[in-house]
Structure formats: C-alpha cells, structure tokens
Amino acid sequence: MHEIGIVRQIVRTVQAFAEENDVRDIREVVVDCGELSLVIPEYLEELYPVIAKDSILRDAKLTVHVVPGLAECEECDEIFNVVENKGICPNCGSFEKTVLSGKECTVKEIVVPDQ
Ligand SMILES: [Zn+2]
Fold first, then answer.
1. pTM here?
2. How far is the CA of 104 from the centre of ligand 1 (A)?
3. What is the pLDDT of residues 83-101, one digit of tens each?
C-alpha cells in the first residue's frame, strides 16, 4: 500500500510550504490524484487524519480531485481516456500511445485561512 508514502509526501510538501511562507494554519489541501497513478483516493482520505494529526495539517481538510488518465494514440493522434478504453485507441484499435495526464498524485493547492 504505497498510499502511506503519498500521504507522508503531501504532509511534507505542505510543511515545507508553511515554513517557507511563515504560515501557521492550513485550512485545506487539494491533491490531484491521477487515474493512472494507481493511488486509491479513498485510502488517501482514510490515512490522512492518522498521518496529519501531529503536523500543521491536523485541522486541515483534504480534498482529492481525480485527474483523468488521457493518452494520445501514436497511430492516429486520437486523444482518449485510458481507463475507459482499457488502454486501446477507440478510433483505430492501437495499443501504441503516449500518456498525457493522470500518472501523478501531487499537491495542487494549499489553502490558508484569511488573515
Ligand atoms: Zn488510434
């Protein structure tokens, strides 16, 4: 279960941001989680309170946005959703593709309370 590592990375990223910007309170963290990253958003949400409780994130809400896994077909340049089409180009049936998005799971936004 590599979600633990992802959540730790999220907490570290936000802590580094808070230290750099002299922020003491975080209201919300928005994470973009790609469909192709093999990270299960529900696991992130389950693990988050456990790992965040001793950090600056203890009172911050976690929001996970799922980013669709899109790829471009090498044969016909069709752009398609990899998961919905099981990795096969719906236009020409080719397996050859370049993945454009949805491979990563990263912090997208850090929301701090209004001063
Ligand atoms: Zn194609």
1. 0.86
2. 24
3. 999 999 999 999 999 999 9
